Amino acid sequence: MIYLVWQLIDSGFPAGGFAHSGGLEAVAQHGQVTGPAGVFSFARHALSQAGRSALPLVTEAHRRPGTLATLDRLCDVFLSNHVANRASRAQGRAFVTSMVRAFPQARLAPIEECIAVDRLCPHYAPVFGAVLRALDVDLDEAQRAFLFITVRGVSSAAVRLGLIGAYEAQELQRALA
To answer: For an engineered disulfide with 164, which of 54, 81, 129, 168 has Cβ 3.0 to 4.6 Å away?
Structure first.
């Protein structure tokens, strides 16, 4: 099972998460984050925010996948910023599509059906929890994977933006682990 989780959190897995900066690009463009100390602070806050906002949706969808429609609607209201809302929808769609194509034998049909029938957005956090449950990934591992992807997204964006180097990104990942 651990290899499956590694595959899902690998930046090469085509789920769209590698391109999501968590807002770092915007704050860097406004000059609010300019170097390694700013990136570290931003990443720490992004991780904290994800743990308090999105992780409960991941957790509940994993514990009770039958509540996916309710959780997706809650996430849609919760993400009142149009940019964050649109990003969550795009990431969720990309994640489901990638999972269905990469794991055709997995029990993902009920999730796809729920998304279609209930006309869900589908937001990334609840979809992530439901999909990892369908793949029999333990809740603790699913939570860790979600938070890892959050930090990796910020660190990867920081490298792309030239705010930190590749080694500093690895240092950041380790420090926030």
So the answer is: 168
User: How many other C-beta atoms are found inside a 10 Å radius of the C-beta of residue 167?
Assistant: 9
CB–CB of 36/155 below 8 Å?
no
Distances (CA, A) of 135 to 33, 84, 98, 142, 147: 38, 27, 13, 10, 18
Of 59, 55, 49, nearest in space to 23 by CA: 49
What is the per-residue pLDDT for 121?
96
| 1-39: b (≥16 Cβ within 10 Å) or e | eeebbeebbeeebebbbbebbbbbeebbeeeebeebebb
- Whole-model pTM: value is 0.93
